Amino acid sequence: MSKKIIIIGGGIAGLAAGSYAAMNGFSPKIYEMHSLPGGVCTGWQRDGFWFDGCIHWLIGTGNDAGTFKQIWDELGALKNKKIINHDIFKTIINNKGQEFVVYTNADRFRDYMLTLAPEDHEAIDSFYYDTLEIADMELPIKPQKMWNIRDYLQFISQNKSIFKSMGRLSKISIKEYAKSFTNPLLKEMIPKIFPLPDFPAVAAFMTLGHLHYKNAGWPEGGAYSFSKSIVTHYLEMGGKIQYNLKVVKILVKKKKAIGILLDNGEKVYADYIISAADGYSTIFQMLEGKYLDEKIKKHYDETPLFTPLIMASFGVNQGLSFFDHSTDFEFSKPKKVGSNYINSINIKHYNFDPTMAPDGKAVVIVGFETSYKFWEEMYEKKEEYEYEKEKIHNDLLKILDEIIPNFSQNVNVSDIATPMTWVRYTGNWKGSFEGWLINTKTLRKKIPKKLPKLKNFYMIGQWTTIGGGLPPAAKDGRDIVQYICKKEKLRFHTNF
Ligand SMILES: Cc1cc2nc3c(=O)[nH]c(=O)nc-3n(C[C@H](O)[C@H](O)[C@H](O)COP(=O)(O)OP(=O)(O)OC[C@H]3O[C@@H](n4cnc5c(N)ncnc54)[C@H](O)[C@@H]3O)c2cc1C
């Protein structure tokens, strides 16, 4: 009889683990507390408009072979999907009204920057070569914990020319990198491409490089369609998923995870338990904080999280082809939106994908960062919470009317997601949509996927990697099954 694997959570990590477990002859069953698959990789339909809650760029969508491309193929994630590659990554309009366009093609971006700042030709060239070089890094598909000497040697020989640049760019933020420009506009705008505090230059160039090589596109249909493709493939392979049941406890006997307790009181037993759910609730609630060491405790006490978001989605009766698909607008002075004061706003539209809105109409999504504590308290008082959302909605319409003529008159349907929306649907701790913040200090942190003194139990997904993201979540699911196969003395294989 095949060994049973229980997977807690049907986000991308959980779906991937389930898929690889099914490919390797195990009996996987995913328990997902929500009524849908995908976790934070989701979207929702309102009156014919798709409000996408996730994907901006997806690494691994290119035609060339590579680790993530292989994983998406194995999972059936991109099957029959058109990939849309943008010419422009984003446009930034600063508080003086100056515009800066970030082209995805590195040659075009270099030429554009040279016209803006010919005096910075050396710094622009370095920026160009760093963009091309970093994305060339070949990440082996085998889990690093299972590498042998030959794997290490191969990795070193394939990437040795890149290591020096990787080292240099891992130590500095993109803001520090931008000091190499003398032109005030470039100095100001380069860090704003990735407006996260202390964002590592290496992560910035990795993204820009994949965009240049057309390996970081948008899969037609967006996030929910992407998750749906993976779950469909998983079910076709005989995998099982149970929705609408929350795992409240992980059952342990003699320091070995043996099953789960569900919120309907049912107990289910298995040979292996994998949690692909939020890390805090796994360690401190489902396992009652009993399997910890000082290092893990310190990590949960000290490591910063991504600041949660307000995401406002609008279905509108106008095409909006006059501005780019993603634009950051800075205000000359802070604007009040509900109880938040904001200095800038990101506006996205999805006209590049005809499946996202009915003909001639458009989806517009705006987002900005907010305080979790504020929303946690507000959520206790239902009426005030709804009122605050209403205020945000109305204030945003006023702002959007200033940017897009007659916007509010054309709104058909709208939706406001707060940090509590993420908590309610996915349990993600403090509404952090991508887990642990990536910066130059956290970049190299390794988060264990096993807990001390607990056998047959593993953790995967965005709470076990720094910076989150769809590709690492899926690779985690692959790695863990490969690891279990090794433990069971089975040869790991995929069906692709
Ligand atoms: C706005 C936004 C934009 C993003 N943009 C990108 C992007 O452009 N590119 C990119 O690569 N990544 C992006 N990401 C990040 C990426 O989506 C995530 O890092 C990734 O999807 C995380 O997957 P996961 O499976 O680890 O976690 P999750 O998606 O959080 O999945 C966890 C699952 O576990 C379930 N669960 C939790 N507790 C329990 C329980 N007790 N019982 C049962 N089920 C439970 C939850 O309901 C959820 O379905 C974005 C995320 C957001 C929110």
Summarize the structure.
It comes from Candidatus Lokiarchaeum ossiferum. With 496 residues, the chain is of the alpha/beta class. It has helices at residues 12-23, 67-75, 106-116, 121-134, 149-171, 174-177, 184-192, 201-212, 222-236, 279-286, 294-302, 372-379, 382-403, 419-426, 470-487, and strands at 4-8, 27-31, 43-46, 49-52, 58-59, 83-84, 88-93, 99-103, 216-219, 240-242, 247-253, 256-262, 267-269, 272-275, 309-316, 326-337, 340-349, 362-369, 411-417, 457-459.
Notes on the protein architecture:
This protein has 496 residues and is α/β, with parallel strands linked by helices. The chain folds into three domains: 4-41 and 60-80 and 219-304 and 435-487, FAD/NAD(P)-binding domain (3-Layer(bba) Sandwich), CATH 3.50.50.60; 103-213, no CATH class; 309-417, no CATH class. It is 37% helix and 22% strand. The chain is built from 15 helices and 20 strands. The chain has helices spanning 12-23, 67-75, 106-116, 121-134, 149-171, 174-177, 184-192, 201-212, 222-236, 279-286, 294-302, 372-379, 382-403, 419-426, 470-487, and strands spanning 4-8, 27-31, 43-46, 49-52, 58-59, 83-84, 88-93, 99-103, 216-219, 240-242, 247-253, 256-262, 267-269, 272-275, 309-316, 326-337, 340-349, 362-369, 411-417, 457-459. The strands form five sheets. A seven-stranded mixed sheet has the order 8-7-16-17-18-15-19. Strands 10-2-1-14-20 form a five-stranded parallel sheet, with helices on one face. A three-stranded antiparallel sheet has the order 5-9-6. Helix 1 runs parallel beside helix 9, helix 1 (12-23) runs parallel beside helix 15 and helix 4 (121-134) packs across helix 8. The protein is globular. The mean pLDDT is 95. The structure holds flavin-adenine dinucleotide. Flavin-adenine dinucleotide binds next to helix 1 and helix 15. InterPro entries: Amino_oxidase, CrtISO-like, FAD/NAD-bd_sf. This is Amine oxidase domain-containing protein. Residues 12-484 form the Amine oxidase domain.
